[in-house]
Amino acid sequence: MPAEGPELPLGSLGVRGAPGEGRGSDPSNFSSLQVTGSRNPVVISKDVPKHPRELLSFKPKLKTIQVITKDLIRELIIPQEKPQPCLIIGEKEYEKLKESARALNEVERWDRLKTLRARQDAAFEALKKAQIEEQRKAELEDERDHGRGVDEELQQEKQKLLQRVMRMRLEQEEGMRELNALFLSAKCNMIWDKQVLEKQMILKELAEEEKRLDKMMEMEREKGMEVQEELERQRKQELMRARQGIVKQMEQNAEERALRAEELYQEGQRQLERLEQMKREDRKAWEQKQERLKQIHVDIKRFNMESQRLKDQQREQERLEDERVLEQQRQKAEREAALEAEQHQLRLEKEKELARLRATQERAQAWQAEQVSGPGTGDVLPCHRPCPQTGEGAAPLDVGDV
């Protein structure tokens, strides 16, 4: 069996909204369970197949504001912030989510994959059949439309032929021909009389229009002469006013030139005074600048002297530090030389000791060989001291050497 999804412990479920208990209970009396342990509560409904929010009849009263304009009065709803939503699902949806959360094994996954592939193949087959059926219907519809068009054309041709035959049959009759001739003659006479009457009326209207135009032209000529006389009179008046204005303008220009000359003279005097003032201010500023430059030079000289003193002091400190470092290095070199000499002496003594031990071991080995080959055993003492070179075994030594 595949592993089930994560089960909720019984202690994490609590009854919420039991029927008939607590204030604000819903009249539909549905019980629900709340899954705790999360930020958003999940309510599992058992009795309500749909979303409980859809069944609530209570709607909060919305705040409105009245806007009065010149043409109408409107009430606008003030938008409210939506509270934190509460996820409420039905029991069937909860079971479906629980089932979908369960992990599938290989067999179930393979079966589901085969089912999906079978559904996909069936959908493709149905789509292909529907496309073939639509194509066949379209072909039949085209053939039917083509046949209907051919039938309509044949029917129209037949109708035209019948009308032509009937018209020819009527024209062949003598009485009908005479009646047609009378109709044509009356029609021609009526058209001729109408054209003659229209021509007479047109000639009369043209004569009246000619008279009216002549009268209008005469009136326009008289009006034009009056306008011309009025324009001439106005031109003379404008010329007189222009002459007077020119004389007055010349007088004003002369006065303005005199005033302007006086203003220019006064402005020149003010400019000279300002130049003198600017020269005095520039001189004062130059003197102040020279004083500041002198002070700056003094400060720079003092700063340079202080910097030179600090540099000399720093060089002296560096010289003393270098001497101290050199002394330490010399002492260190002497200590290292002494240590090296001591180590060299120790190595020489160690080599001498090793040579002595090697010679002693060789004498012991030679003596042991003589004892083995000779008649007497001699006094031999085993020596368990390790060999100085190899560190292995015990080499026998002479009693005197021991």
From TrEMBL:
Source species, domain of life: Eukaryota
Biased composition (Polar residues): 26-36
GO cellular component terms listed in the entry, alphabetical order: motile cilium
Key words, A-Z: Cell projection, Cilium, Coiled coil, Flagellum
Sequence ranges assigned to domain Trichohyalin-plectin-homology in this UniProt record: 170-371
Residue ranges the record marks as coiled coil: 113-171
Residue ranges, annotated region (Disordered): 1-36, 307-338, 363-402
Subcellular compartments: Cell projection, Cilium, Flagellum
Family according to the record: Belongs to the CFAP45 family.
PANTHER family membership: CILIA- AND FLAGELLA-ASSOCIATED PROTEIN 45 (PTHR15504:SF0), NASOPHARYNGEAL EPITHELIUM SPECIFIC PROTEIN 1 (PTHR15504)
Name used for this protein in its record: Cilia- and flagella-associated protein 45
Organism the protein comes from: Junco hyemalis (Dark-eyed junco)
